[in-house]
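Think of the structure tokens as a kind of shorthand, similar to the way a musician reads notation: each symbol stands for something richer, in this case the local conformation of the backbone. In the example below we present two proteins back to back. Begin with the first one, reading the sequence and then the tokens, and try to describe in your own words what changes along the chain.
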Amino acid sequence: MINSDKILFIPSIRHGNGTGHLRRCLEWSSELKKAHYYLPSEDKESAIDLKNHPLIKKTANLVRHDSEKELKQIDWKLIVLDNRTTYDVPSVLNKIPVIAIDETGPFRQRASYVLDILPSRKRKQANNHVFSFLNFPEKIRSIRPLKKILISFGGEDPGNLSQKILDSLDKKLLENYEWSVILPHRGNTEAIPNQVQCLHYVEDLKNQLHHYDLVITSYGLTALEALASQVFVLLFNPGSYHDQLSRNFRIPYCPRGFKKNKRQLNQYLNHAIGLLNEGGESSFKSLWSKMTIKHQSLLEWLEKMTISSESCPVCGSMDRKVIGRFEFKSYFICTNCSMKYMVQFMQKSDIYSKDYFFSEYKKQYGKTYLEDFPHIQKMGEERLDRIPIKAGKILDIGCAYGPFLLKAAERGFSAWGLEISEEAVSHIQENYPQINIHQGSFENLDIHHSVFSENQFDVITMWYVIEHFDDLKSLLPKLNSLLKEGGILALSTPHASGISGQFNLQNFLKNSPEDHFTLWDRKSAVKALKLHGFRSIRFHVTGHHPERFPLILKKILTYNMRKYMSILLGWGDTFEIYAKKGK
């Protein structure tokens, strides 16, 4: 669970981005006793008077941090970044999980979680797109002839679009309609026609919009709030990017309105308002219906989050590139050590219950773990054949119900096991006295205060276990210390460069279990193991699935040809790794 007192909001206050980013962050954080914001005072690009702007002055719970030195004093748990275009966050926040909202800049590739709230061109690259986090107004406009028109281009209006629209109004438009304009904070009123009501700041504007029949604005929060109030909307945007967003959402807009002259704007306004008078209700019905959604609290959603380790599990680097995003997890590749890894946001509790080895195992393999026991033992014998050390002390971490250790004991090894599941440990204690079994998590194991000690084992095995750990930079040195010099570490794990990962990476990532934090291949395995004191690394690729080949190869290759190709190219979906301790 995220501690809401440790959430830091970073909204955009730059020239050209308006005040909408700050406004919605303030609304989201309004329920907090203290709402922490990073609003740097030295930001020369700031479009907002941070001392005197009404949005700031009326927010009693706002705690402002204006320097990186201040940020270092709090142990932040989460950053909510609503900055539109971000290149990087302050270096002191480098390893804090970031939820980037409607982010369009390079940081979108690195952010822990990308949440698109406004309809965007990049929806496929987001973890989630949730319209319901916007708290739309409840009051709607009554059906009536078009009469009252509001011009509002936010708290900044960087393209001076309000004045351009006002300059284009002819006598007919001014006389036939009641016009109002909301100017930016401290905007100039000298050039406004006498027939136009001038407003400087409207508190809680969204709940006043139903009093108007048409809102002229640019693509953004005010446009969506007006639609939710069942008000007509015409968009004049400050650039082509917003034109494209308007087109995607099918909101009427003036193409390249920011380039049009006074006469062209006047022609467009007369034509568009005329069409709205003729049949506006029917043409806007589908747009209005999109806005009828139940509000969801962003803060409640954030507080339910449980975020796994943020940095690379192997080397601790934050240099990374996103390779997949899903609702409750993101996948990255570390550009430093090449490991593919998951950052998880909603952790399932009690993953290793009895169901893990029975109903869940049967769902995946068609039989329970104990029913599959003979097959697992057979695989254990094959693995023992591949381990170069043939006698001594062997530790199987995550030994489950003990099939591998039974075969190791048969071959003369002193068999030791560590298992987190109480049911599995009890089963071994009751049935297999030849196994020295201990219950617990390897992560929490203190080798200086336990039955395990440094340089104790000749062989350590982890069969489909290594991927379950989210901190390999601590785990791999601990494994190394338990092994004798020249001892063998043997692992098996899903193969990120197998047939599934090679030809349908997104599906492979989507279906990867929620407790698999790392996805290994040969390159990342070599780097990870060498980094932590292992050498003589060998691989044995398993899990060949000709039926998982892409359709085009299925059409031209027989089943046996595909199987041979998979073996030849190492395209199995699982593989084993054998490494020796030593420099």
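Once you have a description of the first chain, move to the second and do the same.
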Amino acid sequence: MRAPTRSPDDSLQRRLETRLLWRMAVLFLLSGALSYGITRYYVHEVFDRWLYDSANSLAQAVRQIGPRAGLDLPRSAEAMFQWDDEDQTVYRVVGSRSGYIAGVSEAPREPEAPEVFRNARLFDADLGGHAMRWAIVDVPLASAGEQVSVMVGETTRKRRHLAGEILLAVWIPQLVLLLLAGWVLHRVIFFQTRNILSLGNALRDMSHRSLQPVPENGLPAELRPLIEALNAVIGRLELAGQAQRAFIANAAHQLRTPLTALKLQAEQALRSESLPVMRISVVELQQSAQRAVRLANQLLLLSRAEPEAQSDASRDRVDLRVLAFEASREWVFRALSAGLDFGFDDASDHAWVMVDAALVREAVNNLLDNALKYCVSGARVNVSVSVGAGHAFIAVDDSGPGIEPADRERITQRFQRGNSVEAEGSGLGLAIVREIAKAHAGRLVVQSSALGGARFELHFPTHSLHGFSSAR
């Protein structure tokens, strides 16, 4: 199957770099805007102080000259006051009684709410098409009986140029740092994502024949939960693979014998020269085929009963008493035909559990088949359901030959049978029951029965339910 193509935007490295770099760029712009505002503030503060000083210096030259107020300012001092190689500086002196005294003939009107700095009032206004900054200082002239207003203004070119130079001095190092940080970020992300790529390569090179845990060396702590989950999945896959290989090997080994028998009996039937002899061979062939079919069905049931094949979707809330009673009812005719005393305990509890009803029914069938197979005529077989602390169980008791304590664990293994067994069987019945119990977090218990034979208890947990009821 062809792998889907991936666009460059799917790269984790590209995503991290893009998201971090544009955030750094936004921070750079915000820092630049903040620097611009601070620069403008302090540049204006410096030039406003100079403008304030100029207005107060000019106010010192206001005198009473004759009957009216005047400005005692030599031409050389006026030239020095107005000289500037970049900005244009103007002034205007007006008296409350004398009117225009000196300076430019026209000046902007003072706004209603100017900025106040000490004894001066500051504001921005245009004059002659140029943006200018103004300062006004009032000088009370008691000898002349009036108040003189001194207004000084200058253009703002030097302010703007100085602010621009300061911003460049600040922004250029910040831009260099931004580029350097971006390069460092790229290298760090590259080396970190390289570990993730190595993880992907390790997983891609892994096959079902060689499942190995993924090494955690060199990977960040944030990836450890992912690695642990992957290793847990790999471990389960390895166990499932081992179980599958063992199942296939056992199945091949067990099926070889009945298939060989079928082949030999078919050849014997073909070599038969009389119809009665051929009929006997065909009957034996039919019996061998039935044994092979039962063995195949048991093998399939065993594969279904393994925990790795289980799914919660197949489980329902089931009453074990009802399930065990319905399964037992199907064995009544066979038990009576064999001359057995077969019964179901009416005092059994109603026990509700979450199970796969079909599998549990097969487990009960295997236990009953095992009991009926090894009990002789006149023996007793009894089925009951009981509830304990946190668990419920189905019990099958018989009065047969029983099982030696040394064999009780071994006979629940696959393809294992008791040492004194004479009845036919594949050695899978009890192994299937044990796997079904294990798949439901339960267990199979083999012990002696009060009836004198063997007792098999199939336990299931009841703690997974919100509650269960039991009634006698």
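Compare your description with these statements about the second chain. Residues 139 and 437 are 108 Å apart (CA to CA).
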